[in-house]
Every structure is written in structure tokens, then in C-alpha cells.
Fold this protein.
Amino acid sequence: MTISDMPTHQDNDHSRRLYRALKADRDDIVQLLDDPSMEVIRALLKNPGLDESCLLQLLKRRDLTEDVLKAVYRMSLTDTSHRMKVALVQHHASPDHIVLSLIPYLYLFELVTVCFLPGATSDRRLVAERAIINRLPEVPLGSKITLARRAPSAVLEALLCEGQPQLLDACLDNPRLKQSSIFAMINSPGANAETISAVARHPRWRSRHELRVAILKNSKTPLIWFTAFLPGLSLVEVKTIYASSRISAAQKACVAEELLRRRGGR
């Protein structure tokens, strides 16, 4: 074969593959799923013998182009298959408009996976987080506890602010939890003596100076934490807490005792 013959040979081979993709039976379809030509893949998508399992196998390919993914998205199988929706959302090359339109159909922990997909855009993560938070009122406690161990920071803040003591340890142990979220919880209407105490005794958070001050400015904080934390604060901070209108009379008396102790120690 001469060099001049090669393009014609290649064209004929490509044409045969295109025709084969349109007419292939189940066994041939499986072989064609790995064809390097996206034109052949697009032709394959028109094959009536293409089923869900073949499409899911196809969606494992990392080299699929946006036009192929758009064509898969438009297929009737995608409307009826939950697994297809998940596979499209999780494919790194799926266009944003496809992913964002499919996220509402995902189950709770599938949404969590979306939040941590490599290369996921901030828009995708934000939509997934909002979808999780919107579903929280209907999520059983056991699932919430599992969620608290795995969730991103925005979801953790929402879980903390629910004020359920059973969720606290799982939330506080999650390495993605931010200190600002704990501030929000301490100052939320749902905070109570039990939830505040959980933060105050937690090995990761109890030594945070800013959190100690916030805890002592809450009227629901048990007196034991005033006894434990006040000695570690500066005189200015103790006076600021004493002047706060938010603390109870019993708490104010405890702070006054600390001020008297310091005066007596001079």
C-alpha cells in the first residue's frame, strides 16, 4: 500500500465503523463502546439496541466530549434511569447546565459525593449543598448522624443549628467543621445547655479561646464552664462578660466572684 492510498483506506474503515455502530447487535455494541472516534460513538447512540448497561459503561470513559454527553442527556433512557443521571452528574466533562438540572434527582448521599468530586465547580457544590440542607427536615436522625460524619462545612453548620444533641459528636468530630459554624450554633436559638457543654468539653474545640469567650456570653451555659474557663481569660475579657446584658443573674454572680478573687490576689 502506498502513502497516497492510506487516506482512502482510513476513510473506508471509518465509514464501516459508522455503519456498524448504527446497525450493531448487542455484542458488537459492547465492542464499539471503546471506539476512539467520537463520531462513531455519536452514531452508536442512535442504535436502538443500546441499553442502560452499555450507556453506563460508556460513561466511564474519561475522554467523552461535551457533545456526546449532551446527546446522552437527551436520550429517553436518561429520563427513566436514576443510574444514568448519577453517572452524568459524576462525569468530569458534563456541562454545568446538565449537572445542575440533574442534581435535584439525586439521593442524599449521592449529593454528598457531588460536593467532593475532583474538579467540581463551586456552583455544583453550592447547588448540591443547598439540596442537602433543604432535605434535612425530612431526613431520619440515623441518616443525619451518618451525614454529619461525612458532610461539607455548610451542611454541618445547618445540622449544628438544629440543636439536636445526638448529632453533636458526629458534627464536632468532622474535620471539615469550621469554627465559625460553632459560633453560629452557640448563638442560635437552638443552643442549649447540653449542646454548649458538648462544645466546651470536646477535645478539639475546648481549648479555642474565642469559643470559650462566646460560650461564657450565652445565658444557657451551665455555671461549671464559668468556673472552668474564667480563670484563663484576661481581666478585660472577664469585665466584658460581666457587663454583658445577655448572661443570667447566676452567671453574673459567678463572674463577680472571679473579679473579687482577682482583686484579692493583688
In short: The longest helix spans residues 6-23. Residues 1-6 have pLDDT under 50 and may be disordered. The two ends are 103 Å apart (CA to CA).
